[in-house]
Structures are given as structure tokens and as C-alpha cells.
Amino acid sequence: MVHNDKYLALYILSPTQALLLCSILAILLVASLYIWALAGYEVSNRNDPTVIKQRFISVVVWCLICPIIIAQYVHVVDPHLIHRNGIIKDKVKNPLTQDTGFIDTLLSMVFWESLGVRLDIAHNIKSVLVSIGLNLLWFYGPLVEDWQYVLIHQHKDTPPLHVIRGFIIGPAAEEWIYRCCICSVLLNSGFNQAFSIIISPILFGLSHAHHFYYQYSTVHAAEEKNIRKIFLSVLLQLTYTSIFGGVAAIIFAKTRNCFAPVVMHAMCNYMSLPRFSWVRFKSQKDYLNCAAYVFGLFSFLFLLFSLDPRTFSGV
């Protein structure tokens, strides 16, 4: 439940229904990327400019649809009325006759606040700054290792459409669906925070499994060696996307702000995976780089789990 001074956003989903709804939202996001095939378009090459533009349209439309679907299961009510009638969340099975209607729910700010959308500038700034600070600690090792490569050289030849996809549309759409929508539904439907933080990144990681289809269709996959290579590549991607998804879910659960995970996602995409060139340990610099990795990671984890949600609720 999320509330402001006047109203309360009451989710009337059982845990099972919430889990089913979240799975459907995740599956249909991926399906929207391939729906263009029904019109005869080529959809397998994710780096084709036409495919990229089609997917922009798909994810934007789906991002607009998701809150409309969720609003069907949310009722904006007067919390005093609920307490006076003795109604508690666990007993709500049907829409309350005293609540606002579906359109009113969509127009209510408390509903959007339950999805992490806030008009409070101070809250937004604080959440984003915390996200940036944590991310810089997470990538402290790679930045010490070679900050010029990380910040300048690795993306200097990246096509504009790829930049928009990787640093703007992709992070915004995925965080909106998997954190703001899916994680919010789980957090407000009877699941504890730990379970919600686990389920959201699992769905996020699995949603990248469709990349196997792209890689399979663009190489000579008939050879067993290539199939094994593709599988390991996708498995690696599922692993690091799930890990990131867990971090983003924690950030969202603690800040309840939509901008914080989006900024973190965009920064992670920009930084890319660490190169770990120091693992050779051939010079003193390699040991220093290793120490920077360890320091950054442990500092990041310590501060991440030390975040107190109450510091954001009072902003």
C-alpha cells in the first residue's frame, strides 16, 4: 500500500495473482519486440536500424499500456473510511464500493507514486544522486583501471541509434516495466521486500533469453561448437542481467523512485562489463587495480544495504 496525505493506493491482487500478472507483463514486453513479424518484417537482427526503430515503438507502447493494466487492480480509497469500516487489505477480494473508479485511479497521483513516479523535485534529486554515487563505487575498479577507455574511447564509434537504445530507451523502458511496474505490484500485493527483489530480477534476466534466437540466426549454428558457444554467451548475459536486476530492485525498493534505477541502468550500460585486465598480476599496477575493484565492490555493497528507506520517505 502506498499513501499520501489524503488517499491510499490499495492493490487488490492476491500474491498468486500478482505473480501471474508480473509474468504476463514481462512475457508480453518481449513478445512486443517480435510482433512486427506478423506484418512480414524481419525481426531477428536486433542491430538493423529498422528493427531498432520498430522495437522503440513496441516498448514505448507497452510502457504506456502496463500502468493501465495495473490500474485495473488498484483502488484509490480514503484510508479513514477503510479503518472506520474495519476493512483490511487481506480481506479485499472485490472492488470496494467506496473507492474511486478506474479512470480516477489513473488520474490519481497516489497511484503513480505507488509506481515510483513523483513530482517531488527534492525526492527525485536525492534518489538520482544516491544512484549515481553507488554506481561510481560499483565501477570504481574499472575507472581506476582505465578511466579513459571506460568514459571516452569504448563508445566513440557507437552508432546514434545504438546510443539511444542502450542509454536512453532501453534503460527507461526496462526499468519502468521490471522495477516500477512489476516490482511495485509484488511489493504491494502481499510479498515481502526480499521476495519481490528476487523475483523481479529473475524475470528481468529471463527476458534476455530471446537473444539466443538472434545469435542462433546470425551464425552457422548447425555446428555443436557454435551452439555451445551461443549458449554460454546467453548464460553469461542472463547472469549479469539478473545480478544488475537485483541491484536495481533494491534501489527501487528503498527509494520508491522511478528515476533512480533508470539512471543506474543507463550508467551500467555506458560503463559496460569490466575488463579485469589486472588478473594477469604482472605488475604492481595490477595489484593496485585489484585492490580498487575490491574496495569499490565492498563499499558499494555496504552502502547499498545500508540505505534506509525512511531517509527518502521524508524528503
From TrEMBL:
GO terms for biological process: CAAX-box protein processing. It is a multi-pass membrane protein. One of its GO terms (cellular component) is endoplasmic reticulum membrane. One of its GO terms (molecular function) is metalloendopeptidase activity. It is found in: Endoplasmic reticulum membrane. The chain crosses the membrane at residues 7-36, 56-74, 230-253, 290-307. Keywords: Endoplasmic reticulum, Hydrolase, Membrane, Protease, Transmembrane, Transmembrane helix. Belongs to the peptidase U48 family. This is intramembrane prenyl-peptidase Rce1. It comes from Reticulomyxa filosa. The lineage of its organism: Eukaryota, Sar, Rhizaria, Retaria, Foraminifera.
